[in-house]
UniProtKB/TrEMBL annotation:
Name of protein: YcgL domain-containing protein CA267_016315
Domain YcgL positions: 1-85
InterPro entries per the UniProt record, alphabetical: YcgL-like_sf, YcgL_dom
Pfam families: YcgL
Organism, scientific name: Alteromonas pelagimontana
PANTHER family: PROTEIN YCGL (PTHR38109:SF1)
HAMAP family in UniProt: UPF0745 (MF_01866)
Domain of life where this protein originates: Bacteria
Length: 97
C-alpha cells in the first residue's frame, strides 16, 4: 500500500496522509480548506515500515482504509520558560500588575 504524505505551511508539524498522490477525494472539504495548499513531502510504501513520522503504521493504514485519510497533528509545544520558572521556585506565569 502506497501512502502520500503532505504538509501545510499553516501549522508546523501537521501532516496529511492519503492513500495515493493527490487522492484527496475522501478528505472533508472543510479540513482541506483549513489545511491550505497541500505540499507533497513523499510517497512511501507503508507495508515495509513499522512507523512513519513517529506514528504506528497500523494506525495510519486503518485510518486510510476506514476514512480515506489520516491527519497527524503537531506535538504539543512545551513552555520551557514556564518549566524553568517553576524549577527555580517561581510561579509558571509572572504576576500581572
Amino acid at each position: 500500500m502506497l501512502c502520500a504524505v503532505y504538509r501545510t505551511r499553516r501549522k508546523e508539524g501537521m501532516l496529511l496522509y492519503v492513500p495515493g498522490k493527490d487522492a484527496f477525494q475522501d478528505v472533508p472539504e472543510i479540513l482541506l480548506k483549513q489545511f491550505g495548499q497541500p505540499e507533497l513531502v513523499m510517497v512511501v510504501p507503508v507495508d515495509k515500515r513499522r512507523t512513519l513520522a513517529g506514528i504506528d503504521v497500523a494506525d495510519i493504514k486503518l485510518a486510510l482504509q476506514e476514512k480515506g485519510f489520516y491527519l497527524q497533528m503537531p506535538p504539543k509545544q512545551e513552555d520551557w520558560l514556564a518549566e524553568h520558572r517553576v524549577a527555580i521556585g517561581l510561579p509558571a506565569k509572572p504576576d500581572k500588575k
